[in-house]
Structures are given as structure tokens and as C-alpha cells.
Task: structure prediction
Amino acid sequence: MSSAPWSAPQHSAAVVPGGPRRPGRRDLLRAGLAVPPLAALAGCGSGGTSGDPNAIRIVDYYNTPADDVAINGTFSACAEELGLTFSRERVPGDQLIAKVLQMGSSRTMPDLLMLDNPNVQQVAESGALASLEDYGLTAEGLTPAVADLGRYDGTLYGIAPTVNTIALFYNVQLLEEAGVQPPTTWDALRSAAEAVTTEGRYGIAFSAVANYEGTWQFLPFMWSNGGEETDLSGEGVLGASQFWSDLVRDGLASRSVVNWKQGDVMDQFKAGHAAMVVNGPWNIAGLEADTPDLEWDVVTIPVPTAGGEPVAPLGGEVWTVPLTGDEDKQRKAAELLKAFVAPENQLFMAGERSTIPGDAEAARRFGEENPDLSTFVEQVATARSRTAKLGPDWPRTAKAIYTANQRVLVDDTDPAEAFDEAARTVS
Amino acid sequence: MTTTQSAITAPAAGTPAPRRRRNTGDLLVRYAFVLPAVLYMIAFFGYPIIKNVVMSFQAYDFSTFFNGKAPFVGLDNYAATFSDPIFLRALGNTALFTVGSIAGQFVLGMALALYFRRRFPLSGFLRSLLLLPWLLPMIVSAAVWRWILEQDNGALNAFLTGIGLIDDPIPWLTSSDTALIAVIMVNIWLGIPFNVVLLYSGLQSIPEELYEAGQLDGATGWKSFWHITLPMLRPVVSVVLLLGVIYTIKVLDLIIGLTGGGPANATQTLATRSYEMSFVEFDFGQGAALSNILILIALAFSLVYLRANARAAKNG
Result:
């Protein structure tokens, strides 16, 4: 029983004794209201070609005040320099793709479109994006994995000015009291978690939720264990899943990890219910605002054996130039994008938004100036793009991974069984 | 409609000459009044349903939105739906969810409606408080219930352990054994106001004399409920149950908000699976196939409802 509760009494009025239904004024009104939308429908489809050739339409999902100000400020400065104007439409994050599909089918794509990086290949495959190289933009200077984020089939379709990744946050006080060092290996992570787990507090928390976030958090464990998204039933993947499963089974992590998104995980950390959490820099601002007294630090995500290289997934948004059919506008949009992603702008936006510049040299400088974020800078340098191997097929595989992990963590299914099935669903 | 028609034409019968012109005029006016509603139905109900049916026979995916190509694939989408291992589970969950929710909502709703039949101080105020679940946006309710049902720090487990009913916290939303039960519990809470309101208004219309007469014949308590209240309430009960089924079978937002269909597909229903197919996997063809199956099921219940409604109108 949920939707349209208002309609229930109306329907029932016909049978509830004493209440014969009389067509009221409201019905007439409703009938009358139906006409204007129809007229409006007929008007669309002609395409949204606005008059001003210098007005650039931008669509993105930067809604938080910090993001919004940084993005808007950068665009303002760049547009002014180029003699352009712009209008931005901010879409709720989880509705961006639906919006893109709508705009695609009604031929109303904006001049500049921001996409979350795992979707870029899918959109590019559909033929909706312009090759940036045609307009003189290159991936030169970008950290190689960052450049991969915007590539499909060898063509550059998008550029990520700043990127992010995940690392291990820990509660300094709790670890010190327990006399353990911030962990760098899986064994050390386990024993550190054992040392700080008490009644009402788990050693570690991560997100194994049934959506892309759950897969994103699993990837550093999977990749650093030699697992590959192209071989889901391989030993590396199974070992990583087993490691997560053991943490939960042994009570070092809550069973609720299967329902926690990354924000929920951070809330556990803030509330002192978890001593270590896997999380990203975008949550640092909230962490500092909500719990200014909590002393925390960050290390790269522990690896299976000492000396191994941590491999984390690259996150972040990629800017693209959709094919709108207006060649002149596309060129101007590309010019604006080129200015927008210049290294000094990357540094500014990275600082404002607690993210890492995509340009390798800018990232290095950024790490020096922001020691708080140096762990993330380090992690980004070796991070991997999720779509580098599978391209448009990534979302399907990502879903198979989180579904399999749910089965392992919730039903204690053997990882081999769960991931065998995962491998079958994507084959 | 029939009564209005005869009412309008009756005065015209005595004057034959202007009859024709006036009738065509009447007719036009009548159609003009019906037209907006018809257009509305076609645009906002007819078109989407037809589009959905057509879509279910097409390979309608991500790229379709950009290049407009949606090749006809016959029954492929339905074949894929039926061979999907999650389909049967979702079908079973939908049945359990619907039956469990309706049973709980109805029994509790009936109990509360009977309770509020007696007038007592503050009864009106308490009755309006009961409507609260209706007033909250679904997504807010879901978020709050997620906190309440949290395994380690949730209010429900704290309460149950506090009064000594359970020793270990129950993993309400994180175990595949309890997740569906938890979701049904929340949905019952949400559905109670709907049941109370309709059943209560039905109870109001039962004449007090019947009970007085029954009392003389010795029908009190349960007896009067079985032999007077329930039979008199039958038309309302059938409407409550049928509308309940139609609304419950398609619940999406609550489940998405509470569990997202998880953990491990334990709360996946036809509605959530269809949403997932279309808007997570972007396989709109298969999503449409799944939702058509759902529409058919809801339609079957709607027909039963309409028939019951027509019968009730005739009897009433």
C-alpha cells in the first residue's frame, strides 16, 4: 500500500454507502487542464536551438554548495575570457543518466555535458559525443589512468579535470590506545580491527551495498589481490571476497555493510561505531564539520602482502562535448572546456572540492600543498579506470560483482559459487 | 450518464420543429465536454501503455535514445524475462509481499476502525493522528525506518533487547531471512490509515437499529460482528482489499528506499526488478516486458474490482 493514497477515497466514493459520486467542479477542471500540455507537446521536437551563438548550455550534477561555487566560478572566469556566456543546469546525481537519455532522444543535448566516468564509454558508444581531438584538445599531461577515463576505442571524448579515489580512514586515538599501527597489509588490517573491536564498535566498515558503490569499494581489494574484472571467477577476485566475508563473519565488520552506502559508512565513523573505514575525500568536509574533535588520518588501502602495490579505482566526473549538430557551438564549447580544464583551474577546483587534479604535474604540486590529501594523490597515481578493459560493458560487470558479494556476505555463499554465477551472467 | 441524458432531452420532446437542431447542438456540447477527458486519457494513459507494449517487443536500450534504432525482436524480451533466475524469486516475493501486507493492513485496520467506532474523549484527535503515515513522503518514511531497523544501533532492536524479548539483535534488513518480513512490516504500517479510513466510514453507515435488534435476539460481541458488521461491510471490504492489492503489487519506492531489492535479491519484486532492468541496466525492452506482466496481474484484479463495484452500485 503506498502510492496515490489521495486517489483511494475518490475511487471508493462510488461504493461507500451514502456517497454517490457527483461529477464535481474538480473533474471539469482536470479535464480542462489536459489540453494545454498537449499543445505544449506539439511544440517540442523542433530542437532547442537558442538564438545566441555565444551562449553555452551546460549540464552537470554539482549540487553541493562547495562544488557548485567552484564549478561556477571557474566557468565564469573562462567564459568571460573567451567572450562567451553560459547557463548551467544542475541535475540530481542519480538522475543524470535518465536526463541524458531524455535529452538524447529529444535532440536537446547541451553544449557541454558532465558524465560520471563509468558512463562515458556507454554514451560515446551511442555516438552522442564529439571527438575532442577534432577541436585540438588532447590528454597531454594527464595522469595516464585519468586520460583513460575519457577514452573510448582510442578516441578522446572527455576530460576529467579532477579525480578522486578511496583510501582507509582511521581513528587515530582508537588505534593509539590499542597500540596498533595504521595497517598496510590485509593481515595487519585484520589484527588492527581485532584490537579495536569492542561492544558497540566495529574495527572496520566499508560499503558492500547492492549498487555501484559496493563494487567501487570492492575494487581496491580485488585488484591489489590480482583479481581482474575480465575473469570474475579467478582466484584474485575470490580471495578478496573471502577477505571481506571473513571480516564480517568474525564480527570485525557489521553485517549492515550490505546496506550501507559510503555516506552511511562515514556516519558510522563519525559516531565512533567504526574505528577504520574505506572512504573518499569528498566526505572529508562533512567529517570535519560534524566531528571537529575526531582525530583522523588516512592511509592507502592495505594490500594482501607487504610490498604489494595498492590499486584503487579512479572516480570523478568527465566533461564531454555532445554532438548537437551545431558545429560552431561545438567548437566554442570545446574552447570553453579547454580553458576550464587548464592545470591552474584544476588546482583551484581540487582545492575547493577536496579532489585531486587530473594533470600529473598539478597533482604533484597539489600533494605538496595539501598534505592532508597526499595519501589520495599517491593512490591516484597508481589508480585504475574501471572502464579501461570492459568499456561499455563495465556497468553490467559491476552489477554482477556487487550481486555476488551480497550473496557471499548475506547468505554465507561460498565466493567460488557466487562469482561463478557472476561470471556466467556477464559472459 | 443515462439519467442526465434523459433529463436533457425530455423537455424537447413536446416541440418537434426545433428538436433536430437543438439535439445536434446538444450532442456537440456533450461531446465537447467529453473530449478533453478522452484526449487526456489517450495522451496520458493510452499512449504510454501502447508504447510500453511495443517496447517490450523491441531491443530498446541505451543507444536507442540517441540513434532511434530499436529493432523488433519478437518475444525475445519475454523469453529472457522468464529464463531470468531472479524472475521466479521476484514473482514469489511479490506474492508474499502483497498477501502479507494486505493481511496485516486489513486486520489491524479493521481492529482500529472498530475501536474508533466507540466515541471517547480525544477519539477524533487520535484518529487523525493515525493518518500520519499518509502525510509523510514515502522516501522520508523509508529513510527513518532504515534507521529504526538498523541491526546494531537501531531503535527496534534496542527496544526488543531492552524488554528482554530477544538476546541477539535481529538483522532486519541485512539477512535474506528477515528482510522481506521487515519490508512487509513497514508496508503494513503505511497501509493502516487507508484501511482505517475506508472501513471506518463503512462502519458509520451501518444503522444502529440493526445492532439494537440484534441485541434483542442475543447477538452481542463477536456474534454481532460476524452476523451484522461483516455482512453489512462486505462491499467496502471488497473494495479495500482489491484496491489494496492493486496498490501493493506495484510498490517500488518503499522497497528501493529500504533495501534497494537486496540483500542478495531477498526483497526483489516484479516492480523493483522492472525498475532495475530499465533504469540500472538500461535494458528498456526487458524492463517493459516485465512491467507488462505486472500490468496484466494488476489488470486482472482491477476487473474483479470493477465488477464488484458495479454489483455494489446495483445493490446499493
User: Anything to note?
Assistant: Confidence is low (pLDDT under 50) at residues 1-49 of chain A. The two ends of chain A are 39 Å apart (CA to CA).
